[in-house]
Amino acid sequence: MKRLLTGCTFTKLSCAPHTTISNSVEYQAGALGINIAPEAISDQDDYCFEFKTPDTSPISSKIQGWADNSGYGATELLVQAASGLMSVHGRASGQAQALGLNYVSILASTLALQGALAAAIGQLRGLRVAHSQVSMAGAALLATGQYLAGATVSEAPEAILPGCTSPSDRPPFISADGIIFELETLSADPWLRFWSELGISSETAGKGWTGFLLRYAKAISPVPSIMVEKLAALEYQAIAKLCAATNVAICPVRSLDERMSDDDAAQMLEQGPWRYTSHSSSSSHVVPIKQVSNELPLSGLTVIESCRRIQGPLAGHLLALLGAEVIRLEPPGGDPLRGMPPMAGEVSARFDALNRLKTIVEINIKSTAGQREIKSLVEQADVFLHNWAPGKASALNLNDTDLARINPSLVYAYAGGWGADESGSNAHDALPGTDFIAQAHSGIAREIATASDTRGGSLFTVLDILGGVIAAQGVTAALLHRCMSNRGVRMDSSLLGAATLLSTDKLHQRDASSSNSINKSPIAAVYHTQQGALAVECRNQEEAVRMAEMLGLTWTQGDEAFPHQLQKALLAKTAAQWLEAFEQAAIPAAVVVEDLTEVQHNPHLQPELTTGAYTQVRSPWFFQ
Amino acid sequence: MQITVDIPTILRPLTNNQKRLEISAVDVREAIEQVEQQYPGVKERLVTDDQVHRFVNIYVNDDDIRFSHGLGTKLTTGDSVTILPAVAGG
């Protein structure tokens, strides 16, 4: 179908100082078909843009750095440090350290554009809203929210610190011929068969499985070193053969260049991380726009969600935070993840962090009666969102054609692994669509590995989180399209799409001829102090000179001795003491959080947090 | 064999909110039967047709019984049986 939001207009009002954010918002807006108007730059510290549909007044949108209004300098590096992202990534990578991606910036860009689209929906529904706002801090906390939940419950909280597991005795593995690869299986039996064939004892394989099973939840996956050594003695082809025989998936950790040479890569880059298709029943169906007043942009709209784990539930959670009533379908007896420790009272804290705003309906989707019940719910719904395995929707007679027949104005959304819910011709279609396989296949794991000096990607669920945000954003764009055209659509998003969105940033950096290339800060690094680590980023020469003066040093561009001098000087005080001094001098810095319970004490983050049975992350959006 | 069974929060409504039970059993299968006798309803949440549910993990001390002898995994005095609901993936 033609681009989704043709006829809408985007105008950049300010870009300082976040070039990555500016590039990403514009790329996403362009991919949705929004007309990019000439810039109307005004003198503002934060990144701002204006969004307009043919039938709404302009909506001004802003991305600020920290969540408070202090105006203190915030950058990708500093927000990753303060929000706990470095800490979570550091659990399996040896130490608290940056992901090596402009992750928070791209997450914030996606949320900002979604906020603007939601505000336009609100206007079209009678809401007086002219401004939407997000922060990089809010975006980062959304990413660490589940880990924060697990660390802050009162009963048996998780206390998993950076460097607590070996960065080498974990997946991905390396073969004798030097190929780094991920393994994946969702059940214990194939894992046991695979390792038994290699001569690993059941007991040892079981110890490896205990960590592997929960790696997406805990961001660690310690495996006994003998398992790593066993694979390191075999060539990749032999391991792949064994995988095929034991039903374990294998995927090499590829480079971004390898990913970009895939048949589907160029198209995905051009279309953006979503794919929209018109429902096959082309009959025009006038959808009365549901009016709303004094509420949130999506209040009064109904989303039916049938999703497990992280990506899909996060998408539903974000739509709930925008006001939608989300009806979550769970199997009889409830989602088993409800009982997965650590617990906040009767429910898993991690589960609650993504599902606390939803109404639960238990349905056996495999039964005829269950499918009838789903169709009955869909009749009155605005969105149907699922993340079932490829092919399952058709097998259950619940694909987009089935449901659009009942409700032609439905937005049918699939938040999957690879971008199609039927098996296709791409090599990845046969791979399980989990975060770690998607990181490996997409080139993102290699990017993280290079920055982190590890073998592979992060055990923080990089793509599940961004994928969930993209899915919610894609649904919001589809709802806006429906408001403007009276037509429902199908929206597919994926972990691979999320990886591609992250890669666009890297491609901008590699393109030397691009006028949008990323400005490098003169100083941006993590330093040891007397106690704790401090992330410091001087965004320009003026800040670098001022910082040097404050420390009794002299900074000149290209002085190779300066980082060493700076490191030596910073050993004189603790990270907390330095932060106070840096804040007073208005030089951007942040303490690198190791213990996640410290996050809630940071005044720059507190506006996004609510303390209770566990520390909850609030809605990333502010509307006015 | 005197052993302890740690009951996950989600099953505590069935065990009068008991977090830990002390029982006597020779293997995991018998341990579950013993808990079932005291607190009916627990077994069906863990086992069907002598198979542990896919999303239920049972550990004897720190060892997953799927990698030992399943429900037939032997217990010795002082062992601790832990039930952990968990789903693989990511």
Quick synopsis:
Chain A has 624 residues and is α/β, with parallel strands linked by helices. Chain A has 24 helices and 23 strands. By secondary structure, chain B is an alpha+beta fold.
Write the layout of secondary structure elements.
The complex is a heterodimer of chains A (624) and B (90).
Chain A: E1 9-14, H1 19-31, E2 35-36, E3 47-52, E4 59-64, H2 76-83, H3 85-93, H4 103-124, E5 131-135, H5 136-152, E6 173-174, E7 180-184, H6 188-197, H7 202-213, H8 215-218, H9 225-232, H10 236-246, E8 249-252, H11 256-260, H12 265-271, E9 274-278, E10 302-306, H13 311-321, E11 325-330, E12 343-344, E13 347-348, H14 349-355, E14 359-362, H15 368-379, E15 383-386, H16 392-395, H17 400-406, E16 411-416, H18 435-442, H19 444-452, H20 462-485, E17 489-494, H21 495-510, E18 523-528, E19 533-538, H22 541-550, H23 562-570, H24 575-584, E20 589-591, E21 609-610, E22 616-617, E23 622-623
Parallel strand pairs in A: 1-2, 4-5, 10-11, 10-15, 11-14, 15-16, 16-17
Antiparallel strand pairs in A: 1-3, 3-4, 5-23, 6-7, 7-8, 9-17, 12-13, 18-19, 19-20, 21-22
Chain B: E1 2-6, E2 20-24, H1 28-38, H2 42-46, E3 47-48, E4 51-52, E5 56-60, E6 63-64, E7 80-85
Parallel strand pairs in B: 1-7
Antiparallel strand pairs in B: 1-2, 3-4, 5-6, 5-7
- Radius of gyration of chain B, in angstroms, nearest whole number: 12 Å
> Judging from the principal axes of the Cα atoms, what is the shape of chain A?
globular
Specify the helix fraction band of chain A: 40-55%
Residue share in β-strands of chain A: 15-25%
Q: What is the CA-based Rg of chain A, rounded?
A: 24 Å
Order of helices and strands of chain B: EEHHEEEEE
The largest sheet of chain A is: 7 strands, mixed
In helices, the fraction of residues of chain B equals 10-25%
> What is the second-level CATH architecture of chain B?
Roll
Q: How are the strands ordered across the major sheet of chain B?
A: 2-1-7-5-6
Which word captures the global form of chain B?
A: globular
- The stretches of 5 or more residues of chain A where confidence is low (pLDDT under 50) are none
At the fourth level of CATH, the homologous superfamily of chain B is Beta-grasp domain
